[in-house]
């Protein structure tokens, strides 16, 4: 059947409405379970495992993870269509990593496009390109993380090297998507002028890159680690100062990219 994808079932842990981040306009963010990476600073540690988990929130155990069909999600999304229309917004798939559930991600994106809602994905692009290539026709905006250019440093802090990330960045940029590069700026990991310059220079070689966003490290997800009975490995790291972020932003702009703090 033509619309069989609507019956595809996937696993999410949140649907956040009325967001003004992660793409243009007012957006609904769908957070999928499962991720290829284990970033030390991850602010959504409950997203990393695909399994349904329990996390202590405000002293009470909360179930994290819900199995749901594409059709059920689309019904929720369509309620906010007037906000998307007025603001130029739409739906963004986040996580975790949406590519970790490729069939479900495809169904969600196609379902949005079929009812006239614009789409975006927030991704590390650390999947086989055949997966990404299938999704690209259904995506209006790609928000892609590049966390470090050094494969050894990348693996130390994230659990895997960056070879597939950088390779796929080039392929996505050739496809013609609206591509924004995003860099989580983490002190001690990638906050030196050299680190940001290397990422900016690489991003400048890519086609169709509209902007490069610098996302300052924060500790907003730290309590979640306690709730999951996990250690927070960056407890001694302070967030970068506004002055530091402005210095790094100047480097991005000097390379010839449209830089932005946050996003």
How many strand elements? Answer: 11
Proportion of helical residues: 25-40%
| Rg result | 18 Å
Largest sheet: 9 strands, mixed
Helices and strands, in N-to-C order? EEEEEHHEHEHEHHEHEHHE
- Which regions have little confidence, pLDDT < 50, spanning 5+ residues? none
- Roughly how many Å apart are the termini? 39 Å
Strand content: 25-35%
Number of helices: 9
Structural class: alpha/beta
Identify the overall geometry.
globular
**Main sheet strand line-up:** 5-1-2-6-7-8-9-10-11
Mean of pLDDT:
95
GO molecular function, one term: lyase activity
InterPro entries: Aldolase_TIM, Organic_radical-activating, Organic_radical_activase, Radical_activat_CS, rSAM, rSAM_sf
Pfam family, one: Radical_SAM
Family: Belongs to the organic radical-activating enzymes family.
Give the secondary structure arrangement, pairings included:
Elements: E1 9-19, E2 27-32, E3 53-57, E4 60-64, E5 66-69, H1 70-78, H2 81-87, E6 90-94, H3 102-114, E7 118-123, H4 129-135, E8 141-145, H5 151-158, H6 163-175, E9 178-185, H7 193-204, E10 209-216, H8 222-227, H9 242-255, E11 259-261
Parallel strand pairs: 2-6, 6-7, 7-8, 8-9, 9-10, 10-11
Antiparallel strand pairs: 1-2, 1-5, 3-4
